[in-house]
Amino acid sequence: MATPQEIERKFLVPALPDLSAARPSALRQGYVTQPQDSVEVRLRQSDDTHVLCLKSGEGIVRTEREITIEAAQFDLLWPQTEGRRIEKTRWTGRLDDGHTFELDVFDGDLAPLVTVEVEFGSETEATAFAPPAWFGRDVSANGRFRNKSLALSGATLIRELFA
């Protein structure tokens, strides 16, 4: 059995595109693991779905394993994420080339940050991807824009970006 992988690229979004054909979801996630841990253990609630996720690795190709959990299990573990949380609205839609995009509009201390991610079937496909004009700077390789980093020290990054 192959190791589940996530191959994605992430970009800043300087101005919101037309999202009339996209689907919004309210999303909150928190990290159970500590900042120094090399493996991420994350809880995510997206509308009425609750997920426990383990991620490891660096760059645009990472190992990812997810399991759906019950709301009561989520609620039991959620206090362990205090101080390591993010909230955002995720807009999911299709690009003209057929790829699915996930555009995140961050709330709270991370506002007005907006990012967009696109997942790929291979690293070759990810490298060859030509982003549409509304995508901004590619931050795929910048660890400061990973959700775990944003949950831990994103407010500092936001002050630097939007000062």
From TrEMBL:
Keyword Magnesium belongs to the record: no
Domain of life: Bacteria
Domain CYTH as annotated: residue spans: 4-155
CDD domains noted in UniProt: CYTH-like_CthTTM-like
Active site: Y31
InterPro entries: CYTH-like_dom_sf, CYTH_domain, NeuTTM/CthTTM-like
Keyword Protein biosynthesis (UniProt): no
Keywords linked to the UniProt accession: Plasmid
SUPFAM superfamilies: CYTH-like phosphatases
One Pfam family cited in the UniProt record for this chain: CYTH
Name the record gives this protein: CYTH domain-containing protein
Organism annotation: Paracoccus liaowanqingii
Lineage, top ranks: Bacteria, Pseudomonadati, Pseudomonadota, Alphaproteobacteria, Rhodobacterales
